[in-house]
Amino acid sequence: MLFHNLARQNALPPATAFLLISAHNSTMQRLLQYRPECVRRPGRINLLWAMLLAGAALVVVLVALLRQRPAETDDGTTKLIVHCAAGLRVPVEEVAQAYQQEYGIAIQLQFAGSNTLLNQLQVNRFAEGDLYIAADDFYTDLAVEEGLAAETIPIAHQRPVVAVRKDSEKKISSLADLLEPGVAVAMGNPDQAAVGKAIRKQLEKIEVDGTNRWQQLEERVTTDGVFKPTVNEVANDVKLGAVDAALVWDSTVAMPKYAEDLKAVTIPEFETDPNLVSVAVLKSSVDPTAALRFARFLTSRDRGLKTFEKYGTRPIDGDVWSERPEISFYCGAVNRRAVEAIVDDFQKREGVSVTTEYNGCGILTTQMKAIENQSTEHGFPDVYLACDRYYLENVRDWFQDDVDISDVELVIAVPRGSKEVQSLEDFVKPGIRVALGQPKQCTIGALTRRLFEAEGLYDRLKEKQKADGEVVVEKMSSALLVPDVVAGHVDAALVYITDALPNTDDVDIVHLKSQQNLAVQPFSIARTSDHKYLVRRLFQRLADSADSFEAAGFHFRLPQKGKAGSTATENGSGDSGAAQ
């Protein structure tokens, strides 16, 4: 009956439903024809088990098919299910309605306290849901740590305040006033509402006379006040006069429902770093691309964030809205083997277009300098992953603080079995044909010059290059060096080990003993980019892909989950602002 109902309700395509119904009916007919005496006949019990297992397999297939289909409304419209902190109801409802009207995607909103919603996700991690919006990023970060969510995107800042009625006769202007006997206070339950948890966390730090401010406030609320599961219920209590004061978000007081009757009282104990409202894409989403698209709309500075600002939060400086953003990625050629598949997966999941230009960094930075005002509209990259810091330094003023992702070794590549070249000094010997990077066009050329200068060999190399009959070839990209060795055009080349490793059937690798044989790859975002948060998510994908870099021959510098330093952005120079 289940299969018949699913077919009638269009939960499955007609052809798929027909096959499932037919297989199900056939299995049931065989079971009904089964006779007890068959138990005593050899082999018949195996047939019974086979039919039972077949029925179970059909159910598994059905569940898998249903899981692969995006949720739909009764009229067939694609639907996204959003779990949202109750205090954010007004702005989120308005943004959701605007998105549905413009793009025809239904947004089903479910409201509760941030912690209550997280608990529901923890209990049933495979339940329906596409996005989770929390009043504090503590909860979305925890959802990621526990494997419930993937990407997170910041939305806006807010702080706890004291809310009182504008016509209240009680003078409440400090935390001490709240602690006075006879003052009835309402606040969010710390185990359910983000505002309660934020207040408890802050006040526990303030020790007074062998106790702390939180213990004092908790006792006062327990005696004469009330704990509520959501910030809206807390605000309702003070609006209705059931309590003298309420602890809510500053944005709560600015909501239309409360702005006319309530005023916010700021107190020093809460004037610390603000709490960050954020949205997470849940791993239970069957259409993460659609979920990410709405999340980008919600967090864009020219769309969703305007609504959040209207209702009292302080929004982040989000990206510019585009249904399908296009970002430009300048990437030093050495990185291609490590990042190409990651970028491809990223743009498919996000539903965006990433135009990646792989080339020598000398060429890439020359192109950057030719673009007027570093405008991304005129081709300036949104993001740059250099082959080495050497070339990032040339354009540093145009990029945010950088993060070192990896490093790669410079080695000598020689034809398989050859022993003619075993050191840099062999490069300057007469008759030895060599290939090197061009110093002004690619990073490996600049590093080669630095390496030969450190060994006191650069002048001799230049003299050899001028001599008649000597072969000293300079290439504009590191990717062009190893092919010359494989083809037998040269006796040796100074290359990245990442270019040599895929060709070990034809070349041998000679390692160098030098402090200068290392290239370090920094990642940085252009100051002029309108898609900084999108690019930060690309960074996070790279930061989570150590295996891809190491398989290509890189040494990965960013700490991984479960290893020392849990945050990828803790490594590298600067304050890692490129990725935060």
Automatic annotation (TrEMBL):
<keyword id="KW-0812">Transmembrane</keyword>
<dbReference type="GO" id="GO:0046872">
    <property type="term" value="F:metal ion binding"/>
</dbReference>
<keyword id="KW-0472">Membrane</keyword>
<dbReference type="GO" id="GO:0015689">
    <property type="term" value="P:molybdate ion transport"/>
</dbReference>
<keyword id="KW-0479">Metal-binding</keyword>
<dbReference type="InterPro" id="IPR005950">
    <property type="entry name" value="ModA"/>
</dbReference>
<protein>
    <submittedName>
        <fullName>Binding protein</fullName>
    </submittedName>
</protein>
<comment type="similarity">
    <text>Belongs to the bacterial solute-binding protein ModA family.</text>
</comment>
<dbReference type="GO" id="GO:0030973">
    <property type="term" value="F:molybdate ion binding"/>
</dbReference>
<feature type="transmembrane region" description="Helical">
    <location>
        <begin position="45"/>
        <end position="66"/>
    </location>
</feature>
<feature type="compositionally biased region" description="Polar residues">
    <location>
        <begin position="566"/>
        <end position="580"/>
    </location>
</feature>
<feature type="region of interest" description="Disordered">
    <location>
        <begin position="561"/>
        <end position="580"/>
    </location>
</feature>
<keyword id="KW-0732">Signal</keyword>
<dbReference type="Pfam" id="PF13531">
    <property type="entry name" value="SBP_bac_11"/>
</dbReference>
<dbReference type="InterPro" id="IPR050682">
    <property type="entry name" value="ModA/WtpA"/>
</dbReference>
<keyword id="KW-1133">Transmembrane helix</keyword>
